[in-house]
Model the fold of this input.
Amino acid sequence: MTTSASWVDRDAAVVWHGFTQMATFADNCPVIVDRAEGHYLIDVAGRRYLDAISSLWVNTLGHRVAELDQAIIDQLGRVAHSTMLGNGNAVVVELAEALSAVVPVADPHFLFAADGAAAVEQAVKMAFQYWVNRGTPRSTYLAFGQAYHGDTVGSLSVGAAGFGTDLFDPLRFPVLRAPGFTSDPDLDTACALIEAHQGELAAVIVEPLVQGAGGMQTAPPSSFHRLGAACRANDVLLIADEVATGFGRTGSLFACEQCDLWPDLLCLGKGITGGYLPMSATVATGRVFDAFLGPPERTFSHGHSYGGNALAAAAALRHLQLLAEWNVLDNVAARAAQLAELLDRQIAADPAVAAIRQRGLMCGVELATPGADSRWGSRVAQACTRRGVLIRPLGDVVVVMPPLTITDDEIRLIIDVLHEAIAEVSHR
Done:
């Protein structure tokens, strides 16, 4: 069984894909990847696809990067994994030291996990226990409409409703909910809620600059600076979820930098290893960390078996070095400007397009769909895939999020294909 169709059949018989209706899995032309080269994925039939969503926002430098491959090979010669519960690992220490020099967190301390939702879950629990350890318990959180922070129960709770997760609403704990960026880009309501509920708020959680899974909703940097100032003035912890925005996506290494925002807890994931291995981190300030020091009852009783995996740490450390050595952020600036210009020239005026939202190399093209059941987003994605560009929509928002090392010609290919796909689906 070597054809693409037979591989799809084999997949459907044994694999359960997340956020995928398996009854129609085979009908949506899934790509079964066999290998990769640079910015391209190659399927089992040998067809190439430009990875224009960075393998769900995790890939930064492309696939099969020789330096990252070698870092993992070298680490295999030392140790693949050892527990971080009560013990340490040299490469994890080296990674934490390197990250401590660049994260927008004062006196940072790192608790590693395997994915972004786990990093958020850790942050939510840390914020709760911080106040317990101080002797002034607080258990309320302020979060935003349109937010998405992951699919564990805690991260679902601080995330907004929707995303197909409404079924689990009975499991979610209640939170104070400020309007999303679309209806209140100045975050005025959130700042007012912080002042009104300061004595009960354990933390505020926000995605700086861009609400990714919420449809690439954006707000200006000054709004987040004001939010941080409101948290400080009212002694409320601030959690910045940079799982999607971190490691260069918005044009700076971390979105918080553009906002002059210094959170108490910072959540990292996705691009931390360049898309090579699962890893995430919750970064706590020294102020938060110190509240857990002392007698046994102050211990943070949380940790994962594979948290701080040595292979992932080796990849993450070399990835961080390559971002600097290759001047990757310079390419992000150039390609983001090119992307904005091409979107304006070829996509924005299309009557089938309702809006375009972009920060760096994070972009969402919202389609002006004729009806809720038109499925324009998925149909445009399939039309792009047929043309050799791989994307995944968020409802009727088509996401363009290529690797940070994307080239001039590849940006042009993405926009040309997207233009053709929208025309095909809207029957122009």
Q: What stands out?
A: The first strand starts at residue 33 and ends at 37.
